[in-house]
Write a sequence for this structure.
C-alpha cells in the first residue's frame, strides 16, 4: 500500500497546562501538566508568592492563542 | 490519397506523419469510448481507489500509533508481569451485541444489561493486565483501550468497503465511502489525540458537565456518597435549598450511571424534588462557537439512551420539570484534551444554574443537578 506524507493531515498534540491557586493567599499560577494531576487535587507545591506549600489545582486545559481583533 | 491526408484536409492541416498519428489515436479513443462506455467510470474509479488507498494507509498509521501508545501506557502504569501486547490485541477485537429489537418491549433494560456486562468484563480484563494500577487508573486505561478499539474498528470498516468496492469495481460503493472519508479522517485524528488524554489522565471536552458540577459543589459539600456504580452524589445547601449533585466519580475516566443515580434520588426524596437540571457537552454545528452555553428543556445526555430514558420516565411520573444546559463543542473537541474556551464555560454554567435554582426551586425544597460526561482528570 502506498505510503503518504502525514504532515498535511496530522493535528499536533498540544499538552494542556495545569492551573493552581494557593489555598492561603489565592495566588494563581500555571505550569506544564504532570501525570497524576487532576482538577481539585491539593498538591504540596510551594506558592511562588507566600511560600506556603499547599496549592489547589483549579483547571487543566489547553491554552488557546488569543485571536487577533 | 491517404486517410491522414483526407482528415487533415477537413481541418485544414498539412499532411505530416505526426498529425496523422494524432488523428488515428483520437479516432481510436473515440471508438473505445463508443464501444466501451464504462471506460470513463473505470478511470474515475481508479482515481478514487488511489485516493482511498492513501487515506486507508493513514488510518492504519493512526490505529497502530494508538495501539502502541496503549501498550506502552499499560506497561508504564499497570506494570504487568508479562508483555500485554497479546491481551491488548484481543481486547481491540472485543464486541458487544445489542439486544434483539423485533419486540421492543423492555429493550432499554435489556440494552442496559448488555452494556453493563460488557463494561464490567472489559474493565476486569484491563485490571488483570494492569495489576499495579490504582482503581481509578484502571478506568482511564479501559477508556484508552476503548479508543484503540474504536480506531481499529474504523480502520477495518473502511478497509472492508474499500476492498469490496475494488473487488466488484463498484463505483457507487467507492463514491459513498469517498464522500464519508473527510469526516472519518477527522474522527480518526480525534481518536489519536484522545489517546494522549487518556494515556496521561487529562480532562477532555466531554467532561465539561462534570467540571461544572464539581465547581458548584466545591467548598459547599455537606455529604458525599456513591449512589450507583461509578456515580457520586454531593449534597450541598444553596440559599436555603437542598441541592443533590450527581456526577461520575473522578478522577478516573468513566461516565458513571447518572440515569440510575437520579432515579434512585427521586425515589428516595419523593415529592421534595422540584427540579432536575442536566449539564452536558453538545455537538455544535459548523459556524457555532465552541464553549458557548445554551439552555433548554429535556434531558441533556448522549450515548445509548438508557440514562436519558430513566430520567425522563421518572420525571414524567412525578411531574418534575427538566432543565438542560449544553456547552457547544465539536466531536474532535469532545474527546481531546479540554480547550480553554470550554473549560471557562464551566463558570458560566455554574452561575446560570445558581440563578435557575433561585428562580425555579422554592426555598426549603430539593433540586437535582446532574453533570454528565467523562470524569477523566476531574476529582
Amino acid at each position: 500500500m502506498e505510503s503518504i506524507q502525514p504532515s498535511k493531515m496530522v493535528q499536533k498534540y498540544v499538552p494542556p497546562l495545569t492551573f493552581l491557586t494557593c489555598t492561603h493567599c489565592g495566588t494563581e499560577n500555571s505550569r506544564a501538566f504532570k501525570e497524576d494531576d487532576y482538577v481539585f487535587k491539593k498538591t504540596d507545591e510551594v506558592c511562588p508568592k507566600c511560600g506556603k506549600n499547599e496549592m489547589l489545582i483549579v483547571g487543566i486545559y489547553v491554552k488557546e492563542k488569543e485571536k487577533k481583533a | 490519397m491517404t486517410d491522414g491526408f483526407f482528415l487533415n484536409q477537413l481541418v485544414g492541416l498539412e499532411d505530416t506523419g505526426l498529425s496523422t498519428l494524432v488523428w488515428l489515436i483520437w479516432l481510436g479513443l473515440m471508438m473505445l469510448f463508443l464501444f466501451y462506455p464504462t471506460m470513463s467510470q473505470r478511470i474515475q474509479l481508479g482515481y478514487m481507489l488511489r485516493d482511498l488507498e492513501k487515506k486507508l494507509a493513514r488510518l492504519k498509521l493512526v490505529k497502530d500509533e494508538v495501539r502502541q501508545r496503549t501498550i506502552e501506557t499499560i506497561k508504564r502504569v499497570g506494570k504487568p508481569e508479562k508483555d500485554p501486547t497479546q491481551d491488548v490485541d484481543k481486547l481491540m477485537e472485543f464486541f458487544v451485541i445489542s439486544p434483539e429489537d423485533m419486540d421492543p418491549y423492555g429493550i432499554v433494560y435489556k440494552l442496559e444489561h448488555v452494556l453493563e456486562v460488557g463494561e464490567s468484563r472489559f474493565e476486569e480484563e484491563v485490571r488483570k493486565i494492569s495489576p499495579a494500577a490504582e482503581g481509578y487508573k484502571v478506568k482511564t486505561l479501559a477508556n484508552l483501550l476503548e479508543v484503540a478499539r474504536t480506531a481499529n474498528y474504523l480502520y477495518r470498516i473502511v478497509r472492508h468497503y474499500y476492498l469490496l468496492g475494488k473487488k466488484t469495481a463498484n463505483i457507487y460503493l467507492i463514491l459513498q465511502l469517498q464522500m464519508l472519508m473527510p469526516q472519518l479522517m477527522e474522527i480518526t485524528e480525534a481518536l489519536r489525540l484522545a489517546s494522549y488524554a487518556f494515556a496521561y489522565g487529562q480532562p477532555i471536552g466531554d467532561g465539561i458537565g462534570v467540571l461544572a458540577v464539581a465547581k458548584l459543589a466545591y467548598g459547599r459539600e455537606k455529604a458525599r456518597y456513591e449512589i450507583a456504580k461509578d456515580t457520586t452524589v454531593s449534597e450541598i445547601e444553596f440559599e436555603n435549598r437542598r441541592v443533590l449533585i450527581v456526577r461520575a466519580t473522578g478522577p478516573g475516566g468513566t461516565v458513571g450511571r447518572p440515569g440510575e443515580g437520579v432515579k434512585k434520588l427521586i425515589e428516595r426524596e419523593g415529592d421534595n424534588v422540584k427540579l432536575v437540571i442536566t449539564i452536558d457537552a453538545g455537538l455544535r454545528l459548523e459556524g457555532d462557537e465552541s464553549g458557548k452555553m445554551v439552555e433548554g428543556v429535556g434531558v441533556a445526555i448522549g450515548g445509548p439512551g438508557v440514562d436519558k430514558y430513566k430520567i425522563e420516565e421518572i420525571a414524567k411520573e412525578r411531574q418534575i420539570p427538566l432543565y438542560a444546559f449544553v456547552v457547544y463543542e465539536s466531536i474532535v473537541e469532545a474527546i481531546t484534551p479540554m480547550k480553554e474556551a470550554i473549560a471557562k464555560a464551566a463558570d458560566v454554567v455554574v452561575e446560570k444554574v445558581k440563578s435557575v435554582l433561585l428562580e425555579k426551586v422554592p426555598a426549603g425544597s430539593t433540586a437535582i443537578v446532574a453533570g454528565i460526561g467523562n470524569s477523566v482528570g476531574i476529582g
